Each structure stands twice: as C-alpha cells, then as structure tokens.
C-alpha cells in the first residue's frame, strides 16, 4: 500500500503554508516529519485528516496498482494536545469508541486487555478523563488509535509529554504497529526521529523533501538534516 499526496496546497489568507506537497509514503515504514516551528506540520496533518479544507491538490491510497479514496477509517490522528471526552471515564470512552466503530475494528478484545496492553493501571481505568494527566490523556488517544488499527497513523509530537518509561514502551509499540501501515510522526527531537523512524522527511518551503541517509554515519546524517532545516526560511 502507498499513501500518495499530490500537489497539496494550503494558505491562510495570503500566507502560503503548504505550497506543493507531493510525496508517496510506503506501508511498513515510520516516517519522521521534521520542520522548523511554524513550517506547517500540524497544518499538513489537519488537511490530511480533513479537519482543514485544502486549497488544492489531492491524496489517495494506491493498492495493487489501483487508486482509491482515503476513507475516515483509514486515518488515525494523535494530536500533540490530546483531545478526549473529559466527562467520560477511560473505560466508558473506550467502550463507546469500540461500539461506534464496531464494523471497522478487527478482532475486538475485552476492554481490560487493551488497558493491560497500554499499561493503564486498574485504579485509573474507571477514573474520569478530566482527572487524567496530559501524558495519560495522550496514552488514551494512542490506545484508541491502536484499537482502530488505521492504515495511516498521523502522530503530532505524541511522545513529548510521556515519561521516559512510557515513551520507550510507546516506541516499541510503534515499531510493532508499523507492519502493514504507514506511520507519519512529527517531532522536534532529532534523536527520537533517528532512533524510531525509517525515513526522515523535512517540510521545507511548503514542500516535503526526503533526506537520503546515503552512506553517511549518524553524525553526518544529523548534520545534513540540520543543514536542510536551516535552509528553511524562518516564518
Ligand atoms: N487557523 C490558522 N489561521 C491562520 N494561520 C494559521 C492557522 N493555523 C496555522 N497557521 C499558520 O500556519 C503556519 C504553520 O503552522 P503549523 O502549526 O502548521 O506549524 P508547525 O510546523 O506545526 O509548527 P510547530 O512546530 O511550532 O508546532 C504558522 O505560520 C501558523 O501561524
């Protein structure tokens, strides 16, 4: 499976944030999306998740040499600022999510199995989400996306608020999850991108550019990425 973006454009009033995003993502890989502050990473994710209307271009899935539209169950999106229904407990939220997506979720498991998998403790499962910490809300958002098993998973700086143990667990989980799906992971933490991601993609001047590792060692590759990021006109 490939996720193809062609000539995607987005501007806010006169400001052209995404000028010509053309890129093809392949399944089985984690893509690290890097870009300076304000480069447009969140805008790109919002367009792909159809939370924002694009001004031009299109995106689609290519499978067995056939193109098809991206439907909502293809796409999962974990926001940097987690958004969960605060008035529900974690268990109620998970139950509700599974019920409304029953048709598209494969191999539905008992709720506690999901909590176990995510290391959410027994005592927290029936707590209101409004009493969850930022990192725990993030974990819940990630859990919902693990349950849904979308073909394309967009992660907007999801690990920054997690403690080191949870972040490590999550990294391992993403490495398992990447099989047969595309994960696009935005982060400002270069080490994380290099450690976790199979490909590094930079959002530069409103375009996506893959940074080829060639035969570079880790330090040289890092320098090449920083150089490419410096070339970004600072917005
Ligand atoms: N709703 C909006 N209305 C007007 N301008 C916006 C809107 N959303 C984003 N922008 C502008 O678009 C540009 C890209 O913002 P975006 O949040 O996508 O960048 P980013 O790469 O995610 O940044 P960061 O790394 O700092 O989170 C910024 O200049 C921002 O001010």
Automatic annotation (TrEMBL):
Transmembrane segments: none
Record-annotated ABC transporter domain positions: 3-230
Coiled coil, from the record: none
GO molecular function: ATP binding
InterPro entries with a match to the protein in the record: AAA+_ATPase, ABC_transporter-like_ATP-bd, ABC_transporter-like_CS, ABC_Transporter_VariousFunc, P-loop_NTPase
PANTHER family for the chain: ABC TRANSPORTER ATP-BINDING PROTEIN ALBC-RELATED
This protein's name: ABC transporter ATP-binding protein
Organism: Brotonthovivens ammoniilytica
């Amino acid at each position: 499976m490939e996720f193809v973006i062609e000539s995607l454009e987005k501007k806010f009033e006169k400001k052209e944030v995404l000028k010509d995003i053309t890129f093809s993502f392949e399944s089985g890989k984690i893509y690290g999306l890097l870009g300076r502050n304000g480069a447009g990473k969140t805008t790109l994710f919002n367009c792909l998740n159809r939370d924002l209307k694009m001004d031009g271009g299109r995106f689609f899935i290519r499978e067995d040499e056939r193109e098809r539209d991206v439907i909502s169950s293809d796409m999962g999106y974990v926001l940097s600022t987690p958004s969960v229904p605060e008035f529900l407990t974690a268990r109620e939220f998970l139950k509700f999510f599974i019920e409304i997506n029953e048709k598209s979720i494969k191999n539905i498991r008992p709720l506690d199995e999901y909590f176990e998998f995510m290391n959410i403790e027994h005592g927290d499962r029936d707590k209101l989400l409004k009493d969850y910490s930022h990192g725990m809300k993030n974990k819940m958002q990630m859990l919902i996306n693990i349950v849904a098993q979308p073909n394309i998973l967009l992660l907007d700086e999801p690990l920054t608020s997690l403690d080191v143990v949870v972040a490590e667990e999550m990294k391992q989980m993403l490495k398992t999850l990447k099989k047969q799906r595309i994960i696009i992971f935005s982060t400002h933490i270069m080490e994380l991108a290099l450690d976790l991601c199979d490909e590094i993609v930079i959002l530069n001047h409103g375009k996506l550019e893959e940074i080829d590792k060639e035969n570079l060692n880790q330090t040289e590759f890092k320098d090449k990425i920083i150089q490419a990021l410096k070339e970004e006109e600072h917005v």
